[in-house]
Amino acid sequence: MTFSFHGIGASKGIAIGQARIVKRGVVEVPEYTLNKSDIEQEVSRFRTAVAGARADLGAIKDQIPPETAKDIAAFIDTHLLMLNDSAISKAPIKIIREQQHNAEWALKVQRDALVAVFDAMNDSYLRTRKDDVDHVVNSVQMRLMHTDASMARADGSFSGKIVFADDLTPADTVLMQHQGVAAFVTEFGGPNSHTAILARSLRIPAVVGLHNAGPYLRENDTLIIDGRQGVVLVDPDAQMLRHYRKLQREIERIDSARRKLRYAPAITSDGESIVLQANVELPADFETAVQVGAQGIGLYRTEYLFMNRDNPPDEEEQYQAYSEVVRAGEGAPVTIRTLDLGADKQVDGTRPNAPTSSNPALGLRAIRLCLKEPALFRPQLRAILRLSAHSPVRLMIPMLSTMGELAQVLDLINACRRELDAEGKAYDKNLPVGAMIEVPAAAICADIFARELDFLSIGTNDLIQYTIAIDRVDDEVNYLYDPLHLAVLRLIQMTIEAGHKMGIPVAMCGEMAGDARYTRLLLGMGLKEFSVHPNALLEVKQVITESHVAECQKFTQRVMRVIKSTTRTALLEEMNQN
Ligand code: PEP
Ligand code: MG
């Protein structure tokens, strides 16, 4: 009998295949008290297990296919670092010695203590990172209990399979891809889980957050995965299989046609030239951006340079990293967004004593944090200024909400300019300074901000979160996340109009810009610059080339007048069909 599950579509694409159920699950951990004379032997058993887990991870890293993006290995490096950290490699030894517990139990006690710290952090992104602790702890537990820690070390048993797991480690994800896995489905994890991020980078369809599906799926069940809609169909009938196979072929045909669009200009059918740039964060994204023919980088998220390390990068390291980015982009313009740490962006060893906020998305993040900690901010400003002497860069401020903040940032930039003057270091006196419009207050006052800035860029990910009051990383309220909410549409419209009135460019760099369903609506609102994930760029370009702006405007005006959301969606579909 056919039935379906609905989760979160984490990576687009359709896959059809047999289920391969893999269980990592919660390990039953034995507990017993040691004789004093056995303690040192137990310590050495624990050390051997940690060394074994380390060797396992090292071996997996060596097996990562060379053509796989370098950054994917970085996920495994993170686990190796955690394994070497004394919190995992040494603290359990203390418990074994002081409490006379067996190694498995000591490790479990330490794991629970670490997870409690993560839980108390009250930051949804960090809370999801406790999965990393579990992955690393489990790899040692499996060694202690002589169970094979890696689900994916086996033969080619994942080839063409749809893997269903409660959760997957980055190592498993990479190795399964190497073995030709067709898709991933996980019970846990949200759109920001490692599996989701890696699946998108590796272009493998994935559905995550399929809570409680486990008992209903069996090994070798035939599954259809629709990664766009987050749907998993179990035991589909012949008609469904035909339908999805046709859809698969259609997607492949469209993809290959799109690849040819790489060199085509992004011009609408009525001759409007649109700027189509890429959002990048990891170095691998830069390669893809060049491959798809992006006209520059509209959003370079610099946070990634600050993650997984004990100290923030100094000015020189940042200068070198940004120069590398400009080189990788083959000299195309790059919009560097200043540090957006906090909330959903990881805060780690760089700021070890940072206070925790009870509401991180509304707390000290992004520009608020940078203004509070100029020692963190100034090296970045100086690095960008120095780069501007010889490269086409722009500086973009995230999460601006008051004019006072803007004045402070501009003062700081001027102070850095004076320092560089005194040191005889060059910079572009006209370095464009812009801001992301991603807080409703900034959108409502966009006309005032536009007077002081060289460009605006709408960050819909946050703008939607703050306008509708939904935590963007909380999958419980994901259903409310609606780019078509009239309040969101009105704020976007206001921002575009404010920029145009002041004669400055307005771009959009939130996910909405990369979702081809909204391209015509945005063209109709007067948006002329899109910055999108490189994987979405050609699809958006295709829609642009097939759109007539004057027609889009008429439709958009109608959409903006409709009160009922389902009618708005229907009208949008109609707009997209012509
Ligand atoms: C946004 O908020 O839309 C955005 C592009 O920035 P980020 O997703 O990095 O917060
Ligand atoms: Mg944002």
Q: What brief labels describe this structure?
A:
16 strands; globular; alpha/beta; 8-stranded mixed beta sheet; binds magnesium ion; 578 residues; 8-stranded parallel β-barrel; single chain; binds phosphoenolpyruvate
What is the topological layout?
Layout: E1 3-6, E2 8-11, E3 14-22, H1 39-63, H2 70-84, H3 86-89, H4 91-99, H5 103-120, H6 124-144, E4 162-165, H7 170-178, E5 183-186, H8 194-202, E6 206-208, E7 222-226, E8 231-234, H9 238-259, E9 275-280, H10 283-291, E10 297-301, H11 315-328, E11 334-337, H12 366-372, H13 374-388, E12 393-397, H14 403-423, E13 433-437, H15 440-444, H16 446-452, E14 455-458, H17 460-468, H18 486-502, E15 506-508, H19 519-524, E16 529-532, H20 534-545, H21 549-561, H22 565-577
Parallel strand pairs: 3-4, 4-5, 5-6, 9-10, 9-16, 10-11, 11-12, 12-13, 13-14, 14-15, 15-16
Antiparallel strand pairs: 1-8, 2-6, 3-7, 7-8
Helix pairs in contact: 1-2, 1-4, 1-6, 2-6, 4-5, 5-6, 7-8, 11-13, 13-14, 16-18, 21-22
Give me a quick take on this structure.
The chain is of the alpha/beta class and 578 residues long. It has helices spanning 39-63, 70-84, 86-89, 91-99, 103-120, 124-144, 170-178, 194-202, 238-259, 283-291, 315-328, 366-372, 374-388, 403-423, 440-444, 446-452, 460-468, 486-502, 519-524, 534-545, 549-561, 565-577, and strands at 3-6, 8-11, 14-22, 162-165, 183-186, 206-208, 222-226, 231-234, 275-280, 297-301, 334-337, 393-397, 433-437, 455-458, 506-508, 529-532.
